Amino acid sequence: MRAELAATTAIGADKLAQAEAIIRSRDEKIKKMASSFSWKVTSPLRDLRRIFFDKPAIPAVSAKLLGNVDYPHDWTKIARVLNVRGWSLHRDRIPLKAVRASLGGKPAFVEFGAERLDVLDHFRDYPGASHCGW
Questions:
Q1: Nearest one of 95, 94, 132 to 112, comparing CA atoms
Q2: Which long-range contacts (CB under 8 A, 24 or more apart) does 77-82 make?
Q3: Left, alpha or beta for 128 (phi > 0: left; psi -120 to 50: alpha)?
Q4: Residues 6+ away with beta carbon under 8 Å from 44
Q5: Of 1, 22, 28, 65, which is the most buried if we count CB atoms within 10 A?
Q6: Are the beta carbons of 116 and 132 closer than 8 angstroms?
Q7: 85-90 vs 101-103, strand pairing mode
């Protein structure tokens, strides 16, 4: 039994040492790349790309919320007028009174309270589940 434990510990220590060596090697490569002339010269171009082409990260949703965005299914083809549908519930079973949304940093109108009997089928013990749609 002790021999098995010692063998398992040795294997684990070996795998850990290998992983640490890989991380050290990658850190060295990144450090060399970041200190290179070409990386420093192209820095303004990367900044411009971030400003004009990179999309901002989607804000994190509260862990206290349950929900889903049901429509649109395909976010690659968005019309000029955007219609988004879904539902939301509070994990602590607190009835929601409203939801907020923003588009491009500006508040967007949200109509909350649409009937969602499909959600009620799965969340019967949540207050407001029958009308949690938006």
A1: 132
A2: none
A3: left
A4: none
A5: 65
A6: yes
A7: unpaired
- The helix/strand/coil state of 90 is strand
Give CA–CA dist 70/44, Å, rounded: 40
With tokens 């900044």, the residue in question is 47
Number of helical H runs and strand E runs in the chain: 4, 4
Q: Are 99 and 113 in contact (CB under 8 A)?
A: no
Amino acid in position 80: R
> What are the tens digits of pLDDT across the range 45-100?
999 998 888 877 666 778 899 999 898 888 787 777 888 899 999 999 999 999 88
Q: What is the Cα gyration radius of the chain?
A: 25
